Amino acid sequence: MKIDLNMAAAEGNSVKSIVVANVYQVESKAGGHVYAIKQIELLKEERNDVLINREVSILQTLNHVNVVRYDAAWREHGTPDVELDKVYIMMDYCDYNLQQVYDIITSVYKRKTHETICPVSYFIKLTLVEGILVGLGYLHDMGIMHRDIKQNNILVKQDGDCWTVKLCDFGLAKVEKSGSQHTQSVGTVSYKAPEVKHGGEYNHLADVFSLGIMLMQFDVNVNK
Predict the structure, then answer these.
(1) What is the DSSP letter of 44?
(2) Which residues form the Protein kinase domain (predicted)?
């Protein structure tokens, strides 16, 4: 069964939306291309500048079909003691994240077939997971740990019957340098590898653990 995500969403299917930052959809006056602009307010801490600079620096080095495409970044200075500085990161726009795709697929299928289990889930999973694995493999080949793999950080773009997944949100990403030790416990608690959760040494394989947790949730979400 073919499912058009845009059509399904327009039909009023329930879609969960979890906002982790202010993200705006904008359209270029020249050419009409649609972008997503992520707005980040900078707290008065030096560490925030370090994280933002790292995120932009990493995005500038990436060029892959399964990674969201970076276009530009800029900073606006706020009023001292009144308004915080803001950083804007402009990226290619994608219509959905992976969680929203799950919700649309299950809602449409169950409504049209009156079945409680969605048997197309395995085909959908293979189609989407292949792109996630390729994108994650690219990051690791580039020596980059994402460190926050979860459903809301995987975007999906639909072009006809073609679905393309794109990894996004590199706010916690870090370059994995040879011989360096990573012990900082970052990421979303329910997706963390044990070594990350307990402050031990870890490497890019922690991303693979997070992906495994995400895939387990996929089965629960689609077949609930």
Answers:
(1) S
(2) 3-224
Contact call for residues 223 and 121 (beta carbons, < 8 A):
yes
| Domains of the chain in sequence order | 5-14+95-222 (1.10.510.10), 22-92 (3.30.200.20)
pTM, entire model: 0.79
- pLDDT 10s digits, 117-164: 555 556 677 788 899 999 999 999 999 999 999 989 999 988 777 789
* CA atoms of 10 and 5, how far apart (whole Å): 9
Is the CB of residue 106 less than 8 Å from the CB of residue 97? no
DSSP notation for 126-161: HHHHHHHHHHHHHHHHTTEE----SGGGEEEEEETT
Distance from the Cα of residue 203 to its chain's centroid:
20
Classified as helix, coil or strand, 79 is coil
Q: Is 49 an active-site residue? A: no
